[in-house]
Amino acid sequence: MAQTLFEKVWNQHLVRPQTADTPAVLYIDLHLIHEVTSPQAFTVLRERGLKVRRPDRTLATMDHSTPTTPRNAQGIIPVLDAQAVYQLDFLTRNCQEFGIPLYALGTENQGIVHVIGPEQGLTQPGMTIVCGDSHTSTHGAFGALAFGIGTSEVGHVLATQCLLQNKPQTMAIRVDGTLHEGVTAKDIILAIIAKIGVGGGTGYVLEYMGSAIRNLSMEGRMTICNMSIEGGARAGMVAPDETTFEYIAGRPFAPKGSAWDKAVSQWRALPTDEGAVFDAEVVLNADDLVPMITYGTNPGMGMKITDHVPNPADLTDVSAKIALDKALNYMGLQPGQSLLGQPINVVFVGSCTNSRISDLREAAKLIKGQKVADGVRMMVVPGSQRVKAQAEAEGLHEIFREAGAEWREAGCSMCIAMNGDQLQPGEYAVSTSNRNFEGRQGKGGRTFLASPLTAVASAINGVVTDPRLMIERMKA
Amino acid sequence: MEKFQSFTGKIVALPINDIDTDQIIPARYLKVTDKNGLGEACFSDWRYNSDGSPKPDFVLNMPQHAGAQVLIGGHNFGCGSSREHAPWALMGAGFKAIISTYFADIFKNNALKNGLLPIVVDDETHKQLISLAQEDPNTQIGVDLEAQQITLPDGRKVTFPIDGFSKYCLLQGVDQMGFLLNLDPDIAEYEARHPQRVNTLEPVEL
């Protein structure tokens, strides 16, 4: 019977299938952990006298509570928050005691967990990958089944390398056509979430397909899969193809020699079969897309950057009306207003959505020779130490610095604002991250989610700006 | 984990759609390494002024709603981050069950693993419960997991879905780790049949 990509990966990892009484038992190929969602799981292991079953299938990094401030004279990134120090030390002790490799703060491979997996070649097609982090969906860009789990489940995987899972449904998201200049992968996913809503993907695994997806780089596909969870889907996937293989080849953990050839032949069998059936389908045309921006307090509250903020009075559903009213009140916006020209205080380029080398190259290209507007703080936070080193080798850091932007150390930074990088109450930010929830980037902070191009264009003008205007100006 | 017992408890309504886990427990409280103290920080940004004083107009601060054990949220409760701190915080704040028309997947899984019962009801019952909680803060409902039913003040019983395995674990007070540990022979057999793809301890040399 014809199978979807998801069904193939699911079936290949069943230790035991689902029964009337019990969920399926799914084997996990790769378990990524970080300091914030793992401590209580290690405590459970100790309480029960358990070992980590497969430290060789586990990798830890430090990213969420780590500072991104520049290194001191000794080359160390100082952590000043005592609670963060304790949490990071606890991860170090846990990794030492249980034999888990750790990419610690300040070391050459450290970075955001969803940047380092692909970068190291650990993320490969057909794998099951989990992490105590909802943006684990990122890894689905390689045709892996990857999803976020809670801390109890982190404990399950540490102890047994397995998870109990009820089989999700499947949703095909087809994006055909060609993107116009200035429109990016970030705009595709913001348009998808605006269409299906913040809960529209709940219970589904998404598969992104169509010519516009095929034509994206791996970085672009990761940006899209990353935000699957913002539509409520735990996982999003893209079928592996030549673009995927080319990205993986030669990376530290990629198969080499004859093992590479064997792996590629297995990966070629993964794409969804002709005639396979999805439980739901959504269609978008890339030709119709323009740069997107969010106006509200969840990623589903997004619109074309040229549109106007919707009016709660136009909504018929009472609870949706209340939600929009509350969101606009928090954001300090009026129904019917345009966001173009809206003054901003901060621009954040970073996060597991948009902090890879191609994101930084695009941002640098647009800001080169320009200045960040007076009164605007722009932070550029590379996704990993390797991304940072690559960007510096290409001179991108100098371009950002000359423009007046801050060039930071690698980490989650202002996406989750638990390391001191945060907005002040009432401040507006254009952010390349993935969440615009109330207080997400700092208590009282107001977030407009957008692409790196929109972020840079807005930084230069000090107001929300359509990046296509800046691209035209750059060409002229 | 304690066995989940049937109970009758006060309800309180927070009828806002898409309540995300960043609201339930803001990220700055995630630097803990245990589960203690999260109840006081539950809904922190909605509940407290910047000087730490409680906001009198926030429903969970109102004295008439003190002691509520069942929270009625809007649609898509618990969306966003995978932080299990969210159910820990809600339980720390005294809740035993959350009612919505649907829950975000990861939040629902996390809640079930901690003995916090996510109850899905139809739109009509949802609206009725919100009205009841707003009209009379002393409204109580019965929650019976064995029968998969809630009992409204007028005696009407509404059934709710739950997967059989989660129900069994909650009623017996056992967590799912034990079940998985008992599958050790099956897991070992799976591992023997499937060659390891990557070894995180050893990068591949050419």
Largest sheet of chain A: 5 strands, parallel
Q: How many helical stretches of chain B? A: 9
Outline of chain B: globular
Low-confidence stretches of chain B: none
Task: Report the CATH architecture of chain B.
Answer: Alpha-Beta Barrel
What is the CATH homologous superfamily assignment of chain B?
Answer: Aconitase, domain 4
- Sheet of most strands of chain B: 7 strands, mixed
Give a verbal description of the structure.
The complex is a heterodimer of chains A (476) and B (206). With 476 residues, chain A is an alpha/beta fold. Helices cover 33% and strands 16% of the residues of chain A. Chain A is built from 16 helices and 19 strands. Chain A has a 5-stranded parallel beta sheet. In chain A, helix 3 links the parallel strand 4 (58-61) and strand 5 (102-103). In chain B, a hairpin with a 4-residue loop joins strand 5 and strand 6. The relative contact order of chain B is 0.16. Chain B is of the alpha/beta class and 206 residues long. Chain B has a 7-stranded mixed beta sheet with strand order 4-3-2-1-5-6-7. The chains are: A alpha/beta (476), B alpha/beta (206). At the A-B interface, helix 2, helix 3, helix 5 and helix 11 of A face helix 5, helix 7, helix 8 and helix 9 of B.
Summarize the structure.
Chain A has 476 residues and is an alpha/beta fold. Chain A has helices at residues 5-12, 39-48, 82-98, 113-119, 151-160, 185-196, 211-214, 218-226, 242-248, 258-267, 318-331, 357-367, 385-393, 396-403, 452-461, 467-475, and strands at residues 14-16, 24-27, 30-33, 58-61, 102-103, 128-131, 145-148, 162-165, 169-176, 204-209, 235-238, 280-285, 292-294, 302-304, 346-349, 377-380, 406-407, 428-431, 446-449. In chain A, helix 2 packs across helix 5, helix 6 runs parallel beside helix 8 (218-226) and helix 12 (357-367) crosses helix 14 (396-403).
Secondary structure blueprint with pairings:
The complex is a heterodimer of chains A (476) and B (206).
Chain A: H1 5-12, E1 14-16, E2 24-27, E3 30-33, H2 39-48, E4 58-61, H3 82-98, E5 102-103, H4 113-119, E6 128-131, E7 145-148, H5 151-160, E8 162-165, E9 169-176, H6 185-196, E10 204-209, H7 211-214, H8 218-226, E11 235-238, H9 242-248, H10 258-267, E12 280-285, E13 292-294, E14 302-304, H11 318-331, E15 346-349, H12 357-367, E16 377-380, H13 385-393, H14 396-403, E17 406-407, E18 428-431, E19 446-449, H15 452-461, H16 467-475
Helix pairs in contact in A: 2-5, 6-8, 12-14, 12-15, 15-16
Chain B: E1 7-14, H1 21-24, H2 38-41, H3 44-47, E2 70-73, H4 85-92, E3 97-100, H5 105-112, E4 117-120, H6 123-135, E5 140-144, E6 149-151, E7 157-159, H7 164-172, H8 176-181, H9 184-193
